[in-house]
Amino acid sequence: MRAKVLNDHGERTYAVVLDSGDEVVSALTRFAESENLTATRFTAIGAFSDAVLGYYDWDNKQYERIPVTEQVEVVSLIGDVALEGKRPRVHAHVVLGLRDGSARGGHLLEGRVRPTLEVILTESPNYMKREFDPDSGLALIRIGE
Asked: pLDDT tens-digit profile of 104-126?
């Protein structure tokens, strides 16, 4: 993984390039921890050798795992980094393009990069924190004052 600050005036913006074999959620989490990111949004494009998507089952309050076991294009990856407790947590949704032109999408649980993933992260000066919501069973963003 390589990273560079693109802008440090107002909102800090980073370019992060992940390489073949990198797992995107864990790599972005490590980057967020190293840069002390607390309220960040990101977009990315690239490709995965395989991925695991998630569909949230409201009744069971857990993600159903949907494996994608082929090379795919990352048509769109959007998400945010917010604090959950005192640690940054990555939350991402992805649309994957398959060989036949069809698409699959959902919550990104895991994604193995091949050959690259180009991520642009922008940190907001606003404070965002995730708090457990008992109705949904999810950690949802609460915008601070």
From this structure: 999 999 999 999 999 999 998 76
Whether the Cβ atoms of residue 128 and residue 143 lie closer than 8 Å to each other: yes
User: Residue 131 and residue 59: Cα distance in Å, rounded?
Assistant: 20
The highest-level CATH class for domain 2-143 is alpha beta
DSSP secondary structure, 110-143, as one string: EEEEEEEEEEEEEE-SS-EEEEEETTTTEEEEEE
Strands 72-84 and 128-133: parallel
Residue range 2-25, pLDDT digits in tens: 887 776 766 889 999 999 999 999
**Tokens representing residue 75 in the block:** 């048509």
Domain assignments of the chain as residue spans, ordered by start: 2-143
CA count, 13 A, side-chain hemisphere, 45? 2
Please state, in angstroms and rounded to a whole number, the distance separating the CA atoms of residues 130 and 91. Answer: 10
pTM of the model: 0.86
Nearest to 96 by CA among 80, 127, 125, 117: 117
